[in-house]
């Protein structure tokens, strides 16, 4: 799978087909639908850009996708046999939902590592339905994890007005419009998209009559190889225990928790690339 890791490093993403088996896909649909059904009108209004966004740790079944053996094998095949989980969400765009705004998810731009091609944080997207431009497929800008793009100039405006952008109060803003170099990434249900967290990504509006649901999970493929100050920033996911229901199967996910017990000062969290990004 060297071609896949090369694509992730160079372009910032790759697609791996048929990762979810039919049983897992059906179970994930049922669980996701039940979680979405519990959200109220305010949630959908406040998260119109995403549609809805729910922490994956709200339901104990989701531990099985966090520690899904075929995915852990993919990590190993790509050269990472000790990947660590950070967080994840059920994200679903309803019929008629507006586009997702352009954004990137890197938050350690204050560290020199951010400006290198070294593997850092990945997002994994499991689509539970077939996607295309009509129902809001993923769109992204290849190479934008390593190269400055005109959209980078809008990051401060977005980060300082997150609620306004999530509510899509200015649909004509550049963060909702077509962008230079963008490509569509349509996939089949059960496919997996792996992307560098620093990559600019978005999604088209959902012009279909059905919901378009994706599970997005963040991992550190090589967490223990990260600079100590970044590991210190992450600390330990065990402090998030309040997010888990009492019936959460910790035996599945505990081996994937990030752990840091040193005394190094953590790097300052920052979502703003410096001029070092050319």
Describe the structure.
The structure is a single chain. The protein has one domain (2-256): q2cbj1_9rhob like domain (Jelly Rolls, Sandwich), CATH 2.60.120. It has helices at 2-11, 22-37, 41-46, 63-66, 69-77, 155-159, 162-166, 228-234, 250-253, and strands at 13-16, 53-55, 84-93, 100-103, 122-127, 138-140, 183-185, 192-196, 201-203, 212-220. With 278 residues, the protein is an alpha+beta fold. The chain has a six-stranded antiparallel beta sheet. A four-stranded antiparallel beta sheet has the order 4-9-6-7, with no helix packed on it. The model has no long low-confidence stretch (mean pLDDT 95). The protein is built from nine helices and ten strands. The longest helix has 16 residues, at 22-37. It is globular and about 50 Å long.
Kindly name the structural category.
alpha+beta
H/E element order: HEHHEHHEEEEHHEEEEHH
Q: What is the helix tally? A: 9
Which spans of ≥5 residues are poorly predicted at pLDDT below 50? none
What is the residue-mean pLDDT, rounded to a whole number?
Answer: 95
Question: What is the CATH architecture assignment?
Answer: Sandwich
Query: Biggest β-sheet, characterized?
Result: 6 strands, antiparallel
Q: Order of strands side by side in the largest beta sheet?
A: 1-8-5-10-3-2
Name the CATH superfamily assignment.
q2cbj1_9rhob like domain
Q: How many domains would you count in the coordinates?
A: 1
CATH topology-level fold name: Jelly Rolls
Q: Please report which band the strand proportion falls in: under 5%, 5-15%, 15-25%, 25-35%, 35-45% or over 45%.
A: 15-25%
- In which range does the helix fraction lie? 10-25%
**Count of DSSP strands:** 10
Radius of gyration: 18 Å
Shape: globular
